[in-house]
Amino acid sequence: MTTVLDRPTFGAAANLTCRECGATYDLGPGNACEQCFGPLEIGYDDTLLASVTRASIDAGPRTMWRYGGLLPVAPVVDLQVGCTRLIKADNLARELGMKTLWVKDDSGNPTHSFKDRVVAVAASAARTLGFSVLSCASTGNLANAVAAAAARAGMRSVVFIPSDLEAGKVVTTAVYGGTLVAIDGNYDDVNRLCAEVSGEQEDWAFVNVNVRPFYAEGSKTIGYEIAEQLGWRLPSQVVVPIASGALLTKVDKAWREFSTLGLVDASPYRVFGAQATGCSPVSAAFKAGHDVVQPVRPSTIAKSLAIGNPADGIYALDVVRRTGGAIADVSDDEVVEGIRLLARTEGIFAETAGGVTVATLRALLDAGQLDPAAETVILNTGDGLKTLDAVAPVAKPTATIAPSLAAFRAAGVA
Ligand SMILES: *Cc1c(COP(=O)(O)O)cnc(C)c1O
Ligand SMILES: [Zn+2]
User: Fold this and answer.
1) Is the same domain home to 104 and 246?
2) Pocket-forming residues, ligand 1, beta carbon under 6 Å
3) Is 231 exposed, middle or buried (0-12, 13-18, 19+ CB in 10 A)?
4) Strand-pair partners of 383
5) Is the full-model pTM beyond 0.90?
6) Which ligand is nearest to the CA of 16?
């Protein structure tokens, strides 16, 4: 479909640019270059970007749209996403022998994961481009975010998920009243089907397929927020969970933009990636020194990260290598330990992806790859209430007793 629109609708965005060959296209639906099939990304008008200042951001709303001048669309669909807490994690830092550690806690978003950020931009782009149906292939959190945003925007939603998803992600999608299709297959099967369906249903906006260039830009806002919350400066190290790899590349893009625009001093930083061993294609490529990512068949409790064929895997590798970071992976047992460690030390209940990140932080420290003395931020991207099964076997009442003082005394909990 073609939609002709005024430029201002797209903010500072200028075009769609191929990441491989640099070919440019008019802003609109589409995610692959017609010349070389490379992925398309939003290109910006540098002069328009340069009008963004700390003061203009400060004058904006207390949501991710305060960075609207750096995003490719105006906020048509708004669930008041973003501006989540950045917590100084002194207890966890002490336990790990680190000096300064922060947790950026994106479980505080409307549907309790960072996916609300990407969907805010994708849904606004979909509306702006004239789509009436919002759709996606999801590992869980995206399903929640798409169904909620569509409900709020008065759009129909059609969400595709693997049928073995956690109940905490199925119920929390279905409740918004859209169409929810469970596929007997893994995420990569779901994603492949969606690519085929999107060829047939041209009037459906698949947030991570035909409007993916817009979608991915939403992840930049977590990077912007960290810099602003640190007092307009960048940390030295960041640990980011990897599914498709888009989030990791966009944190880097955000910090490069802030540096170029003079919103922060251009200080060096190292980007680290975190995966679960049961789905660690990007970590495997990093360790082997490869530029290509060999697809895998996922098997891990960290289902939100279980993408066996990550679209942005090679770009995540680029960012990590360019900044001098590393990528590591951890077992499912370590993921559970990571969830418990963060909960026990900081009172933050993360989903399995957060457990992956905390456990990977520890693994990187143990391997001497991450500097314990350098200021570090880790991303908690989702809420533990959605993945209760991961910790249910080890998170139980200390004692179950009769309602009597005698029983209390006998229980030995005083
Ligand atoms: C989707 C997701 C990620 C990673 O996203 P990508 O951009 O695909 O790498 C991380 N954490 C959670 C909880 C997610 O749902
Ligand atoms: Zn190209």
Assistant:
1) yes
2) 113, 115, 141, 241-247, 304-305, 351, 353, 381-382
3) exposed
4) 350
5) yes
6) 2
